[in-house]
Write a structure and sequence with these properties.
By secondary structure, this protein is α/β, with parallel strands linked by helices. The chain is built from 8 helices and 13 strands.
Length: 271
């Protein structure tokens, strides 16, 4: 599989951009958003964290026009508060429509969205169908755009295990899985958001693939979590059937620098 690395030079240095930009990060107080806001600020850009707790609500439109005034770029890393099918569809449809309409009024020149690797292969999941609709709306908008498809984050491994747990046992399909560190995701978004719109999609992933069940065993061991992990080929991933390569990126993927062992070691020191 051909790939490129997300090197330091590709993480949104101010020197790679023609000038300082005002970048509004929707979901800017969350896991990825807060890291992105910090990185952009460190490289000389005006980064605004926009979220309901900062007075900006994409579902109602509250605060959007004020937040986007003078912005060159909007990066949407927000997420539905519910994974329930109808709720996720309503969130992504409504919030994306409101956001794009506000961007058009403000003269925003670049819309960047964080999405998921393998969406078209995970269409059995209502959440993934909602993300697909979000992307369709972005592509049909008048705003130049870039969509970044990421594999699952290391930081969500625990949530994956919790979702797959029944009677104290974690059941996961033994398929290939190539997670990425949240910090590397933010670096990739920094690069994309300070560059020219792609009017297309790129993929980012961690440096190496692992079997999902084996990775979960290693992660639980670091946490001294006693749950047993069972490799179950019939197990679903957030409601969708998965095959050997369903969760993997394709050729041309950009790889993050943080490997599993490095990330697990960091988790161990935080306990």
């Amino acid at each position: 599989m051909k790939s490129t690395s997300l090197t330091t030079a590709e993480t949104g240095r101010a020197s790679t951009a023609p000038s300082a930009l005002k970048v509004v990060v929707i979901g800017g107080t969350g896991l990825i958003g807060s890291k992105l806001v910090k990185k952009l600020g460190e490289h000389g850009h005006e980064a605004i964290a926009a979220a309901p707790n900062t007075g900006v609500n994409t579902l109602t439109g509250e605060g959007l026009d004020d937040a986007l005034r003078g912005a060159s770029v909007v990066v949407d890393v927000s997420n539905s508060p519910s994974f329930e099918d109808a709720a996720a569809m309503d969130f992504f449809q409504t919030s994306t429509r409101n956001l794009l309409d506000a961007e058009a009024r403000a003269g925003v020149r670049h819309h960047v969205a964080l999405s998921v690797v393998g969406l078209d292969r995970l269409a059995q999941s209502g959440y993934m169908r909602a993300k697909m609709k979000q992307e369709e709306r972005i592509k049909s908008s008048s705003i130049p755009y870039s969509i970044v498809h990421a594999t699952q984050f290391f930081e969500f491994i625990k949530a994956i295990g919790d979702t797959a747990t029944e009677d104290g046992t974690v059941r996961l399909a033994p398929v290939l899985f190539q997670p990425i560190a949240a910090d590397d995701v933010a670096s990739a978004l920094g690069k994309v958001s300070t560059g020219s719109p792609l009017n297309g999609t790129i993929e980012i992933a961690g440096p190496e693939p692992y079997r999902l069940d084996e990775l979960m065993r290693r992660a639980l061991a670091v946490r001294k979590d006693p749950r047993k992990v069972i490799a179950d080929p019939r197990a679903r991933y957030f409601g969708a059937e998965v095959g050997e390569r369903t969760l993997l990126p394709g050729e041309g993927v950009r790889l993050g620098a943080t490997g599993l062992q490095e990330w697990l070691s960091g988790q161990a020191t935080q306990k």
